[in-house]
């Protein structure tokens, strides 16, 4: 490895015991990611590979530390020190959602660990051990599926560890195991008043070869010590003093900087490159032609950016996306949505919707649209890679939503086995779906550039790169038909979703096994709690050549907008109060009962029936992966400008058991603010296949002055946890649209509800002057 | 073709002499030369506030200030806000569990520190107005307000 990080690679990592946080002499010293581990707070955080967990695959392994302290690997998740420190693997990416802390809390609770002695270790990329069961064993952090997906297993692993410790104590004291109990961090024998701390047991513990069969109490009955109590996120202290480390902060010896002028349209290739001006920038080392763009290698980021801007490239014009635009998309998609002869792929189907529709007394239709929108995670995409001189191994420093997908993609890019990829994990400066696509193009960037340079390279996307080469929530046309019986009851529901392909583009591996069912595009069309006997949701995803990705709340963000505005329209047609209408529609099931509770709760919070002069109220309800939530917006409209102001927002959420209640509130605040931007201001426009926007100056995300007063109520229930990271996002747009209707009588059927659109809608309304 | 220049400036109380292209933003000097990576790159055009530092005591964008204009100036970054991370805002930020992804928070705290220096007991409306240049995509704004109010109260 030419001038690279041999010292990093050779570095033996030592996990420090609790109470002896690693000191970092010389804040100004070159950042050496192998050495710079941070240990934070009571439950320390070690970032990077888990090389310090000795022999983490070999059950029963035992290693001495310099201090004489021994570490015993209990299972791939838990390593116990003779000094009492408990190292717990955390398998998810930390991008702000708090899983890094929440997952170990689940295990520690069942193991009855003393939280003050817990050290959290980010798990290395080993899908078989640390994968999320909901994602086929990939370590993939998305879909608010982390706590939901790992919950049962973590409880079981924790219970197994506790059992093994008790069994060892029983043998040590020669007493029946049934006479033993635990208190946090210790096994106790009440009869004799004896007590063995977990660390003491570690010194003599015999670890069974096979995990013991242990049952855990069902959630409804279990007693928890840590779950439900806010322990404080372990990453927070490092995020207030500048020490939290993201991949963009990494420096390795001998490193160059890379910037890439990327294809303006997916699939376009550089045909002619004029790089004289770029090469003339002082500090530029080289120009690297790539299949998908032109890279610049330079001594500083600034030189790399300047040179990238000085490149002139002519692109091939054969890619599908050229010529496309939002207008063309809406026109094409709307025509497809209306043409019932064009069948889609059934996403969700119940009963016989055609027959039910034919029997219906009335059929009502509604059409809803959404423009492309952009993730706008605060940390622009970036990565660091060091490819060996022979090109047969690589080291990468990244923030990614999937450790395992990243290792596979990097190995593929170099044509080397995955075992030759050394992976260093970092915090993510936001993900929201942008850092989890199968090709992780922002990571392959640095790998290709390092290979070309023969040196380590950090590739940084500018914000303009990040916007122009965004992978967006698709453009949507949703068309819903509802069949009503003579009494106005909904008997049939047919939802057609026409939008760009998402799954096929972002994850061809998952798409292959999906049989054309695009879950990213289609989620949210299913209506599990509304008692509508015959339902069909059809997906008609279109290959437009546009770049797409999951974006916080995926398809639910638009499909629920369509559902909940349409429901409101049906309520208005029948002159029924929108809250009452939804309550009547709820199925008489346990989930329906939970839905009722959040709708009634949010109506109470907002004092729903009270009229406010100059203001409108609108409600929306949502089942999102089983999480029940309802929101109410209070709005006013400036008729001159068309600007909507959201003054207040109320939300009631039931996500089952809340592992970290304050974090559920924080995530709900977060997802509501995110939804506010998507609802009102955030739009990507495509012209001739290319992105028009470039930065926060023309892509407007919510700022502090844009916020409503917000009130969130967590409605706790003893159900298994169902996710909280993004659930609030889809509530916001329909609640706002429905509130504008209550105030003005005008329906807004397209996201974002931009002032010019509101003005047009108001002007077109019957009776408007 | 512009040539590199040498500039001497004070960062967190220490004098540094750096050599760089004259139009190099302070941001990249701080991050890549001085290894003060707490100051973040967000937009490069003064639209997001992730790179907020104090220049001669006033909040400013490290991405917009060129090194050529900083001769003799004094810069404070998040690493220099307090010797041990115990500034009232930093403590309040932890107490209110403000950060999510955390990427914007150095800039948020630096901006809030400037606010409290100008106005030790700001009203809520003043906080909102003063803090609006800084974007937090995780939407931690409500907690930022609470943390500033707490720091003002407890300082």
In short:
Chain A is an alpha+beta fold and 769 residues long. In chain A, α2 packs parallel to α4, α10 packs parallel to α11 and α19 packs across α20. Chain A starts with 5 loop residues before the first helix and ends in a 5-residue tail after the last helix.
Mean pLDDT of chain A: 91
What is the mean predicted local confidence, pLDDT of chain B?
Answer: 97
Spell the H/E element sequence of chain B. EEHEEEHHHH
Helix content of chain A: 25-40%
Taking the sheet with the most strands of chain A, its summary is: 7 strands, mixed
Report on the structure:
The complex is a heterodimer of chains A (769) and B (155). By secondary structure, chain A is of the alpha+beta class. Chain A has 21 helices and 29 strands. The N terminus of chain A is likely disordered. Chain B has 155 residues and is of the alpha+beta class. Chain B has a five-stranded mixed beta sheet with strand order 2-1-5-3-4, with helices on both faces. Chain B is elongated and about 50 Å long. The model of chain B has no long low-confidence stretch (mean pLDDT 97). Classes of the chains: A alpha+beta (769), B alpha+beta (155). At the A-B interface, helix 7 and helix 19 of A face helix 1, helix 2, helix 3, helix 4 and helix 5 of B.
Write the topology of this structure:
The complex is a heterodimer of chains A (769) and B (155).
Chain A: H1 6-10, E1 62-64, E2 70-75, E3 78-81, E4 86-90, H2 99-111, E5 118-122, H3 127-130, H4 146-173, E6 180-183, E7 186-189, E8 194-197, H5 198-204, E9 256-262, E10 270-274, H6 276-279, E11 284-290, E12 293-298, H7 301-310, E13 312-315, H8 326-338, E14 345-350, H9 353-359, E15 362-370, E16 382-387, E17 394-398, H10 403-414, E18 421-425, H11 441-453, E19 457-460, H12 463-468, E20 476-484, E21 490-500, H13 503-506, H14 508-512, H15 519-522, E22 534-542, H16 556-573, H17 578-585, H18 590-606, E23 616-624, E24 627-638, E25 643-654, H19 661-680, E26 686-687, E27 690-691, E28 709-714, H20 729-744, E29 750-751, H21 755-764
Parallel strand pairs in A: 4-5, 9-19, 15-29, 17-18, 21-22, 25-28
Antiparallel strand pairs in A: 1-2, 2-3, 3-4, 6-7, 7-8, 9-12, 10-13, 11-12, 14-22, 15-20, 16-17, 16-19, 20-21, 23-24, 24-25, 26-27
Helix pairs in contact in A: 2-4, 10-11, 16-20, 19-20
Chain B: E1 5-11, E2 14-20, H1 26-33, E3 52-55, E4 58-61, E5 74-76, H2 88-95, H3 105-118, H4 124-131, H5 141-154
Parallel strand pairs in B: 1-5
Antiparallel strand pairs in B: 1-2, 3-4, 3-5
């Amino acid at each position: 490895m030419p001038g690279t990080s041999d010292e990093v690679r050779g570095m033996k990592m030592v996990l420090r015991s609790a109470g002896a946080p690693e000191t970092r002499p010389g804040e100004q010293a070159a950042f050496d990611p192998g050495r710079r581990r941070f240990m934070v707070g009571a439950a320390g955080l070690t970032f990077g590979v888990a090389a310090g967990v000795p022999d983490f695959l070999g059950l029963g392994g035992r290693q001495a530390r310099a201090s004489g302290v021994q570490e015993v690997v209990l299972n791939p998740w838990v390593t116990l020190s003779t000094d009492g420190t408990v190292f717990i693997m955390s398998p998810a990416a930390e991008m702000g959602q708090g899983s890094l802390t929440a997952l170990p809390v689940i295990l520690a609770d069942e193991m009855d660990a003393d939280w003050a002695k817990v050290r959290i270790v980010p798990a290395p990329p080993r899908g078989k051990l640390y994968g999320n069961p909901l994602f086929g064993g990939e370590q993939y952090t998305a879909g608010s599926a982390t706590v939901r997906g790992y919950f049962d297993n973590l409880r079981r692993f924790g219970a197994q560890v506790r059992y093994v410790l008790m069994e060892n104590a029983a043998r040590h004291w020669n007493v029946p195991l049934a006479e033993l109990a635990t208190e946090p961090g210790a096994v106790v024998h009440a009869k004799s008043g004896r007590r063995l701390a977990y660390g003491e047991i570690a010194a003599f513990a015999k670890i069974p070869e096979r995990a013991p069969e242990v049952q855990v109490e069902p959630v409804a009955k279990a007693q928890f010590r840590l779950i439900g109590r806010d322990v404080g996120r372990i990453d927070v202290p490092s995020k207030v003093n500048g020490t939290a480390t993201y991949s963009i902060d990494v420096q390795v010896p001998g490193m160059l900087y890379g910037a890439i002028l990327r294809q303006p349209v997916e699939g376009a290739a550089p045909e002619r490159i004029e790089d004289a001006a770029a090469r003339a920038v002082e500090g530029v080392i080289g120009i690297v032609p790539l299949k998908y763009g032109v890279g610049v290698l330079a001594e500083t980021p600034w030189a790399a950016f300047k040179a990238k801007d000085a490149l002139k490239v002519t692109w091939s014009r054969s890619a599908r996306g050229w010529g496309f635009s939002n207008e063309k998309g809406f026109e094409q998609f709307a025509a497809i949505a209306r043409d019932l002869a064009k069948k889609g792929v059934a996403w969700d189907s119940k009963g016989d919707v055609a027959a039910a529709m034919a029997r219906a007394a009335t059929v009502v239709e509604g059409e809803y649209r959404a423009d492309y929108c952009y993730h706008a995670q605060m940390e622009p995409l970036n990565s660091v890679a060091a490819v060996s001189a022979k090109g047969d191994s690589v080291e990468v420093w990244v923030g990614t939503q999937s450790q395992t997908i990243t290792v596979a993609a990097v190995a593929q890019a170099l044509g080397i086995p995955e075992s030759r990829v050394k992976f260093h994990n970092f915090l993510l400066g936001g993900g929201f779906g942008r850092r989890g696509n199968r090709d992780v193009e922002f990571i392959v960037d640095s790998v290709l550039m390092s290979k070309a340079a023969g040196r380590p390279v950090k590739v940084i996307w500018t914000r303009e790169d990040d916007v122009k080469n965004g992978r967006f929530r698709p453009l949507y046309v949703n068309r819903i038909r509802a069949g009503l019986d003579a009494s106005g009851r909904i008997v049939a529901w047919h939802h057609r979703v026409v939008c760009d392909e998402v799954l096929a583009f972002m994850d061809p591996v998952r798409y292959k096994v999906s049989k054309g069912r695009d879950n990213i595009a289609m989620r949210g069309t299913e209506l599990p709690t509304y008692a509508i006997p015959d339902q069909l949701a059809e997906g008609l995803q279109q290959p437009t050549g546009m770049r797409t990705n999951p974006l916080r709340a995926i398809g639910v963000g638009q499909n629920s907008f369509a559902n909940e505005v349409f429901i409101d329209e049906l309520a208005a047609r029948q002159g029924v109060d929108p809250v009452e209408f939804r309550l009547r529609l709820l199925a008489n099931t346990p989930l329906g009962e939970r839905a009722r509770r959040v709708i009634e709760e949010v109506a109470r919070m907002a004092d729903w029936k009270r009229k406010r002069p100059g203001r409108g109220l609108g409600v929306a309800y949502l089942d999102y992966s089983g999480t029940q939530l309802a929101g109410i917006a209070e709005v006013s409209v400036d008729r001159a400008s068309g600007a909507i102001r959201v003054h207040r927002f109320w939300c009631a959420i039931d996500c089952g058991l809340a592992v970290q209640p304050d974090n559920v509130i924080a995530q709900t605040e977060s997802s509501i603010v995110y939804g506010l931007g998507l609802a009102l201001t955030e739009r990507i426009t495509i012209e001739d296949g290319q992105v028009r926007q470039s930065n926060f100056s023309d892509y407007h995300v919510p700022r502090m002055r844009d916020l409503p007063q917000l009130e969130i109520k967590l409605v706790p229930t003893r159900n298994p946890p169902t996710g909280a990271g993004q659930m609030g996002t889809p509530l916001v747009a329909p609640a706002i649209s429905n509130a504008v209707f209550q105030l003005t009588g005008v329906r807004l059927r397209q996201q974002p509800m931009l002032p010019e659109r509101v003005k047009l809608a108001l002007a077109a309304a019957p009776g408007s002057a | 073709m512009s040539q590199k220049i040498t500039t001497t400036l004070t960062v967190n109380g220490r004098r540094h002499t750096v050599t760089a292209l004259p139009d190099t933003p302070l941001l990249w000097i701080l991050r890549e030369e001085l290894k003060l990576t707490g100051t973040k790159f967000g937009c490069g055009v003064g639209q997001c506030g992730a790179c907020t530092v104090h220049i001669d005591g006033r909040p400013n964008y490290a991405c917009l200030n060129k090194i050529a204009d900083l001769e003799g100036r004094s810069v404070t970054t998040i690493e220099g806000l307090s010797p041990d991370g115990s500034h009232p805002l930093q403590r309040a930020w932890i107490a209110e569990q403000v950060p999510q992804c955390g990427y914007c928070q150095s800039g948020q705290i630096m901006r809030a520190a400037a606010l409290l220096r100008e106005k030790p007991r700001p009203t809520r409306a003043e906080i909102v107005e003063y803090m609006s240049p800084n974007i937090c995509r995780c939407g931690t704004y409500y907690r930022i307000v609470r943390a500033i109010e707490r720091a003002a109260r407890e300082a």
